[in-house]
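The instructor's notes for this session suggest beginning with a concrete chain rather than abstract definitions. Hand out the sequence below and ask the class to guess, before any prediction is shown, which regions might be ordered.
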Amino acid sequence: MLGPVILAASRSDKMRRIVSAAPGTKQVVARFIAGETVDDVVPIVSELSGRGLEVTLDVVGEDITTVEQSYAARDAYLELIGRLKELGLGARAEMSVKLSMFGQSLENGHELALANVRPVVAAAAEIGTTVTLDAEDHTTLDSMFAIHEELRKDFPQTGCVIQAYLFRTEDDARRLAANGSRVRIVKGAYKEPESVAIQDKPEIDKAYVRIMKILMDGEGYPMIGSHDPRLISIAQELARRAGRKLDEYEFQMLYGIRSEEQNRLAAEGHRMRVYTAYGTDWYGYFMRRLAEKPANLLFFVRSILTKG
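After discussion, reveal the predicted structure:
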């Protein structure tokens, strides 16, 4: 299986240098990364919004090593929120954040990440939008869920992400569905051991469906993060059975992937949100996109061969 190999490479400085220097990398990265700066991404938000799509924005760069970098991450999101406010785009664009980027893995990281993310969540609320806490590897999740619970005391619209391949996730989904949380479900994109995660793809899909049903039957707001046509169809049926209206759940897909399907779902009246990443430290995010789907890797290899 190539996926675990690629995920291991996502943490390798040597592979980072090799991939960054490859002739075709820039072309492929542009498929998944909307740009490097706020100025690059704002026109894309406007364009997507004009097509009836909503957006969640991710400033990439979770592999930080200093407190100063965690402050810079906070400030990058505050700058983004300021620009969205100027352009009146708050209602169409939320933010997705990785707490590792806010210092979660550093000394006293839980407290540091909470202190850094709180002003971002507050600023988002002021312009009529919200923040979703992305899930990372399993060792970070207890801290992420605790920060999510703390933030919801003042900002109940704060969302979080759960990953279908983890054994713990059905229990997490029941708890979150019962307390009315906004929850994005994804399959999972980190290299996890057999002791904590399902390894077989068909079994991950089955878990995904079970968790979707928990969320649809619950009191919260499900966000279905998938490009899989079969899972999308199942989500629609589960929503219908649960009596949910079209504005009581949403679909989410990555920027640059299945754009026609994004437009189709939006045209049918579904909330369709495009996960749009930008920034200069794109390597880890990019490698996880390659690991998720073999077609992405083949596209990358073909581009390198074409440009080489």
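Then share the key points. Confidence is low (pLDDT under 50) at residues 303-308. DSSP finds 13 helices and eight strands in the chain.
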